[in-house]
Amino acid sequence: MAGAKLQTIYGNLIRLFWGLVISVGVLILLGAGVFLGFDYIYAGRVLPGVHFLDVDLGGMTHGEVLEAVDARVDTTDVSPLQLEFDGLVWEMNPSKFGFEININQLAKQALAVGRRSNLLDKIIERGASVLGFAQPIVSKVDLVETFNKDTLAKYLRLIYDEIAQPSQNAVFVRNGDRVTEFIAPQNGQELDIKKTILLITHNVLNPNRRIILPVTITKPRITLAQANDLGITTLMARGVSDFSGSPPNRRHNIAVGAARFDGVLIPPGKKFSFLKTLGNVNASTGYLPELVIKGDETIPEYGGGLCQVSTTAFRAILNSGLPVNARRNHSYRVVYYEPAGTDATIYQPYPDLQFTNDTEAYIMMDTYIKGNQLFFDFYGAETGRKVKLDGPYIFNVTTYPEPIYIDTSTIPVGEIQQVDSAHRGADAVLYRKIYDKDGKLISKDTFNSHYIPWPAKYLRGVEEAPPVEADLENVLPDEAASEEAKVDPINTGNE
Fold it and tell me: What start and end residues bound the annotated signal peptide (predicted)?
């Protein structure tokens, strides 16, 4: 009984096997018939599904393709090409460079579809024809027969000059605890004009009018790691702030103060004090009188504006993930330090801004000014840390108090001049999370800030009253401007 069942199963398997063999054989024969039949049915003609732009060339002879393509090219409005690189865009009009379409080559390309020497290409293209898939030929052939090479090369040379920049080797000259000469390494780049010309000639009629320019990147010969023996290998983080609208004395003090920190080296494990590095602030150290927030007054003193420097440094500390040992916000919100919660005030001898270099290498500060923006770049070792800043969140916003009028004989009788501006009160909180290279959370910080409401103050001229010493030329911007940040101070340089 068991033997009979096995024989039955065996027989069924044999019949199934031969059925499959016959079926596959029939399919192969049918495929071969279709494959070979195309050569007979479409001898000297374009296979179905082949298109030039919106013209179906299927079934046409070489001569018919020439006529159809020629007619279509004559009615084609060749719109400008968009040449793009790194956010820059150049608009190029092909008609200005004498491009002539190679119609004969297009016809040959159309007839070549499904007839190529490569068997796989032939099978794929004929299969697409059988299934009715469209096969455009614009992107598969050099469309251009002639063009003004000199004119095009001259035009591309202008773009080359805009893009080109030489590679920059790292320069790192140390003198004691400070770097006296520093240039960060920089990759070089240049436009590949030959490849660009090929891309243009291949895409003159392509519906996609965008061309991403081929740019060659060259590495510097001397890296930052090779230029020093302090373990400094990379840009750790950046802090930035905007001081637009600052009066001349304030700008001067910012530049002098920032220079005190340029090139400063912080050894591994060392606690850094902003005030200690800053040193004395007076006329002898190069500062000019400018407004400072002192207690419940805004008065002119030497070094006014230095909090722009400390605020920018604080933002670099935040972004680098370094531990903050001491930081205090300003008494009230100021336009130069927005958004609220990302500022740091300093004043000799207190309050100070302090942090610790908890990495295994030195940290170098690189400070510079571009336009109305101050930058603090921290260079050090690659720690693998990822810093995520959440906020700042601003809440408990309160209106500003009634203005204060001070009678004085300093100004003409009946005249009123503003000497201090109004600011709303608020609280702000900023959260920082630091992750190691494996994505593990290693630290969480919360930075709280409280800003008191601040009244506007005016001098009112009267006949008899004590004179008042006030800087009438330099008044801080009013509160309406002070709550709109001009830069994004967080997540800069450490993504």
Answer: none
Beta strand 297-302 pairing with 289-294: antiparallel
Which residue's entry shows tokens 């290409």?
121
Query: Which has the closest alpha carbon to 227: 289, 271, 184?
Result: 184
Q: Which of 13-17, 43-47, 172-176, 469-473 has the lowest mean pLDDT?
A: 469-473
293 DSSP 8-state letter: E
pTM for this model (two decimals) = 0.70
Q: Which of 80-84, 257-261, 307-311, 448-452 has the lowest mean pLDDT?
A: 80-84
Give the three-state DSSP class for 61: coil
Mean pLDDT of the chain: 82
d(CA 343, CA 272): 18
Instruction: Report how far residue 263's alpha carbon sits from residue 266's, in angstroms, rounded to the nearest whole number.
Output: 10
Could you give the CA distance from residue 350 to residue 177 in angstroms, rounded to a whole number?
A: 24
Residue-wise DSSP of 431-493: EEEEE-TTS-EEEEEEEEEEE--B--EEEEE-SSS------SS--PPPHHHHTS-SS--SS-S
Q: How many residues does the chain have?
A: 495
Distance (Å, whole) CA 69 – CA 76: 10
CB 271 within 8 A of CB 325: yes
Query: What is the rounded CA–CA span in Å between residue 154 and residue 197?
Result: 12
The pairing of beta strand 457-461 with beta strand 404-408: parallel
Assign 354 to helix, strand or coil: strand
- Percent of the chain past pLDDT 90, that is, above it, reads 46
How far is it, in rounded angstroms, from Cα 195 to Cα 209? 17
pLDDT number for residue 124: 66
**CB-based contact 302:281 (threshold 8 Å):** yes
Tell me what pLDDT residue 95 has: 76
Given this model, what pLDDT does residue 120 score?
Answer: 64
